[in-house]
Write a structure and sequence with these properties.
By secondary structure, this protein is an all-alpha fold. The chain has one domain. It has eight helices and no strands. Helix 5 runs antiparallel to helix 6 and helix 6 runs antiparallel to helix 8. The protein starts with a helix and ends with a helix.
């Protein structure tokens, strides 16, 4: 199995080069053109990504995440979401690395076999970094008006959090 894994990338490269030769396409020029476009896209989204990363770090470091968690605790209780996973629910639509750090904190503090640990595991495996993804994709093509995208995606995130909590409670409680 390891030999197959080691051969996959070289085989893909050879197939692309052979296909290009058969079709009489200059593969290297296509690669260079794609790299140029990739750099342009990267420079377009870098400022927004930097702002998101800094904002998440400031929110966690300043105690803002704890304050937001306290504010939303009654709503989480009403929806059946364990309070312990509320920081994950708040961070996961914003930052993947931030949500992994919060997820690790939940597992460390409550254990992976606790209800909070299991709900956090399901949420971590089934949620999307909504704001990050929207920023990257829309920013890369220059869209500035997202219309209903963000509200719809955040509602989908909320449904994910509620259903994840419900399924874990039904399955393990």
């Amino acid at each position: 199995m390891e030999k197959i894994s080691n051969l996959i990338l070289p085989v893909i490269v050879v197939v692309i080069v052979v296909f290009g030769a058969v079709k009489k396409i200059n593969v290297f020029d296509c690669f260079i053109e794609g790299a140029k476009k990739g750099l342009v896209t990267f420079t377009n989204i870098l400022p927004v990504l930097t702002a998101l990363i800094v904002a998440v770090g400031m929110m966690r470091g300043s105690g803002g995440l704890d304050l937001i968690t306290k504010i939303f605790s009654p709503i989480a209780k009403l929806l059946g979401i364990p309070i312990q996973v509320l920081p994950l629910c708040i961070i996961s639509p914003i930052s993947g690395s931030g949500s992994i750090a919060v997820f690790e904190d939940i597992l460390r503090n409550y254990g992976p076999d606790s209800i909070a640990g299991r709900v956090a595991s399901v949420i971590a495996g089934s949620s999307e970094t909504t704001l990050y993804t929207t920023t990257v994709y829309y920013g890369s093509v220059g869209i500035t008006r997202t219309r209903h995208t963000i509200p719809s995606a955040l509602i989908a995130d909320l449904v994910n959090f509620v259903i994840s909590s419900l399924i874990v409670k039904i399955t393990f409680a």
